[in-house]
Hints:
Shape: rod-shaped
Amino acid sequence: xxxxxxxxxxxxxxxxxxxxxxxxxxxxxxxxxxxxxxxxxxxxxxxxxxxxxxxxxxxxxxxxxxxxxxxxxxxxxxxxxxxxxxxxxxxxxxxxxxxxxxxxxxxxxxxxxxxxxxxxxxxxxxxxxxxxxxxxxxxxxxxxxxxxxxxxxxxxxxxxxxxxxxxxxxxxxxxxxxxxxxxxxxxxxxxxxxxxxxxxxxxxxxxxxxxxxxxxxxxxxxx
Length: 223
């Protein structure tokens, strides 16, 4: 068909203009085809690049996820070990506490046994000694007991002549006396003791009070 067209154009010069138009159109089409082909190639290349980048991102994301999972497993393992150690420590401390509550007085009991032995010796020998010797033995035993109590931080509260303190003393009565100022402890009924910094038992005491003035004036007039 092209040969025929060229022959017609040679035979008819008037058709040269049409030939130019056809060639122009053909060239334009070829250019368009070339551009489309290049565009397709670019799109294909872009898709391939995007696919490679996506694959690379997926690999990196998986690596990060695996790393996080591994770190999480390590953290969980450390946490479980720490919890187990804390539980073991708690059980050991509880065991120690129970044993202390049960056997904590064992050293004191051992010391008291020595006192019991001394009492037995004193009672068994009373027929062979006089009353003064027995009294001296009891006094020595009392000193030994007080020494043991002091060893275990059980100390007697010095109350006589001191101002009354409700935290340490328990008032049993009031007594008129000139030997002590009003409000001072003038008599001890039962000794009080402290254990370390705590009150073990209060001292039972009598408190001095001032004599009424009327009674004093009557006595002075009677003299």
